[in-house]
Amino acid sequence: MKLQFELQKEEKNTKARLGTIHYGGKIYETPMFMPVGTQATVKTLSPEELKEMKSAIILSNTYHLWLRPGEDIVKEAGGLHKFMNYDGPILTDSGGFQVFSLAKPKDITEEGVTFKNHLNGDKLLLTPEKSIEIQNKLDSDIAMSFDECPPANASYSYLKQSVERTLRWAKRGKIAHQNPNQMLFGIVQGGYYEDLRKFSATETVKLGFDGYSIGGVANDHESKENMYKAFSYSTTYLPKEKLRYAMGIGEPIDIIEGVIRGIDLFDCVSPTRLARHGHALTKDGQVNLKNAKYKKDFTPIESDCDCYACKNYTKAYIKHLINASETFGARLLSIHNIRFLIRLTEEIRESIKTDTLLEYKEEFIKRYYGENYGKK
RNA sequence: GCGGAAUUGGUGAAGUGGUUAACACGCCGGAUUGUGGCUCCGGUAUGCGUGAGUUCGAUCCUCACAUUUCGCC
């Protein structure tokens, strides 16, 4: 059962889009936030809990499942859905991000990327063909092309040759792709250079993919403007009828700005990572529950939130769990933070329906950042 | 009662006769954007039991006292 995307509406004042994803007899709406479950689990959460918070697509990772337990074991289990008991759509990242996080530039060749297995030190070679083969066996619903995700400070000349190589890798991956039930996305790179993004997007589109990802946008912590430009430079050259996915993007404001620039899908580790470190996302900004001022705060994280954590537990209790390193605290905060981002996309979709996304953005910023927005 | 040992921050403790008293935990903050890592980065004793003395200078040396602790009667 291959996933189907339908574009439903474009907002009047921005490039924002409303869409539907048909999958397994169910309909999901875009723009959408996708929780990350690198090792075939969204850390601390069960699939039932994810459904309860209206999560749809979740992510998993080729590199990690390749190393452990191994793609053949997942295949023998009946594929990733059966293995982890998740019947919603699953997207797998190709291992491209691990090129960024684990490999050194000299480990990257035309053939592929040499990694040092972070579990035991073994030397491993991941190629576009291998990445696709693994994803075929995992039987995810959306596979990613194997790309190079260069660092934010990469030079123009490096990015240019990197973009060209990622294009050649995309072509090789497409040839290797064998799973008719699985979508395959191409990835647009090119840093913050308009001509490189344009080249990368148009050439990737020529190869013909089921959807398009925008990569290399989540590793610059200096300039949000650059990130937003990279969104625009990419989506401008992508076909309207296909899904667009901003890889690794998940700060609330970045999701809003991404939607405004025509992006449909977002994923990010931040809701679960922040949760494990004691932080809660709220409409009034990020809250650090480790702060002493919450010691006697017997109110929920957000009184108007419909999540399991907010309906049943107080900040003081969750703070205590986090301070005591109890995993239930991380679970409650993960539930809240993911639900927060999903609720954000629900509100974004409502404002696209009424063509009021820009007003929504202004109100969101005013409340989330107060007077300080832009001064950071 | 006699003899010995000890006394450094919230805790466990290192240390030196001379600019800012190590380290760890805790505590107080901050970070975190296609997740190796409950991780990373800051801050946290104007003072080294009390008093007196020696010395240019003492947490460090001397004496007294207090407290704790061990052994003996």
Features:
RNA-binding, 18% strand, single chain, globular, 376 residues, three-stranded antiparallel beta sheet, TIM Barrel, 15 helices, eight-stranded parallel beta sheet, alpha/beta
- By CATH, the topology of the largest domain is TIM Barrel
Rg, alpha carbons: 20 Å
Low-pLDDT stretches? none
Largest beta sheet: strand ordering: 4-13-12-11-10-9-6-5
Write up this protein.
The strands form 4 sheets. An 8-stranded parallel beta sheet has the order 4-13-12-11-10-9-6-5. Strands 1-2-3 form a 3-stranded antiparallel beta sheet. Helix 6 (128-138) crosses helix 7 (156-176), helix 8 (194-207) runs parallel beside helix 9 (224-235) and helix 10 (252-260) runs antiparallel to helix 15 (357-369). The protein contains 15 helices and 15 strands. It is globular, with a radius of gyration of 20 Å. The protein is 42% helix and 18% strand. Strand 10, helix 8 and strand 11 (211-214) form a beta-alpha-beta unit. The mean pLDDT is 95. The N and C termini lie far apart (46 Å). It has helices spanning 47-52, 62-67, 71-76, 80-84, 96-101, 128-138, 156-176, 194-207, 224-235, 252-260, 270-276, 308-312, 315-323, 327-353, 357-369; strands at residues 4-10, 17-23, 26-30, 32-35, 58-61, 90-93, 113-116, 123-126, 142-144, 183-188, 211-214, 243-246, 265-268, 279-282, 285-288. It has 376 residues and is of the alpha/beta class. It has 2 domains: 4-268, Queuine tRNA-ribosyltransferase-like (TIM Barrel), CATH 3.20.20.105; 280-372, no CATH class. It binds one RNA strand of 73 nucleotides through residues 36, 38-39, 43, 59, 61, 64, 67, 91, 93-94, 96-98, 100-102, 118-119, 144, 147, 149, 187, 213, 215-221, 227, 245-251, 254, 266-270, 272-274, 276-279, 288, 290-292, 322, 325, 327, 330.
